[in-house]
Amino acid sequence: MISEIIFNDTNYQPKKQLLAALFFGIVTIGALGIDSVYFAKHFFDGRVLTNCIVISYFGWLFFISNGYVRKLMFSMLFLSYIGELIFCNLLEMYAYRTQTIPLYVPFGHAIVYVSGYIFAQTAWVLQHEFPLKRYFGLGFAILFLAVGIFLNDLFSVVLGVLFFAILKKKRWQNLYYCIALCVIFIELVGTFFGCWTWVPKIFGIIPAANPPMGAVFIYAGGDVLLAKIVSKWTIKKSKKPILK
C-alpha cells in the first residue's frame, strides 16, 4: 500500500530524496556536536545554531519530498512533541542538558523517521527484502539480548519484545528496521555529546542503559499512530468535492 502511494505520486523524486537522506549522519553529528555539553563549556551555547541547522535540513527534506512523505513529516512534528511531553516531562525517562525541550527535537524526530523511510524505499533494500528481514531480525534480537546481559539494560529487553510484536503484525517490514537504525545512531550520538541523558532506572525500577536500545520501540509504536493519522488525512482529502 505504501509503495503504491509513493510510486504513483508524480512528485516522487527518489534520487533527490536519497541524496538528502544521506546527509543524515553528517547533520546529526554536526548539529548535536554544537549543542553538546563540551561545546557549551568551551565555546558558547550552540542551541540556537543547532535549531537553525536542524530546521533547515528538515525544510530541505520537506521541499524535495512527495506529498505522502510531507504528510508524514508534518504529522510527526506534532506527534513527536506530544511524545516528548509524555516521555520526558511526565514520565521523566530522560532529560535534556537544559530544563526545556529544545526546539529542534520535534524536527529531529521527523528527520529520523523520514530518513529511515527513504532508506527503506531504495532499490537495494527493495531488491533484498527477504534476506534483509532475516539479517535484521537476527541482528536486533542479538542486540537486545546483548545489552540486557552485558549492560543490565532490562528496559531494552522488554521494549525489544514489544518491538518484535509490532513487526510481526506489520509483516516484518524492513521499513521499521531502517528507522530503528537511524534511531540507534542518533541516540548514541546525542547521549555521547550529553545533549540528553536517560535515567539509570525507568520509573525508578527497570534498569536501563544510556541510551537504551529498546528506544526503537517508541518510534515503531508511534508509526502505528502516525500511519493512521496520515491514512485518514489522505482519505479525507480524496473524498473532498472538486469545486467548479
From TrEMBL:
The chain crosses the membrane at residues 18-39, 48-66, 72-91, 103-126, 138-167, 174-199, 211-230. Keywords: Membrane, Transmembrane, Transmembrane helix. This is Uncharacterized protein.
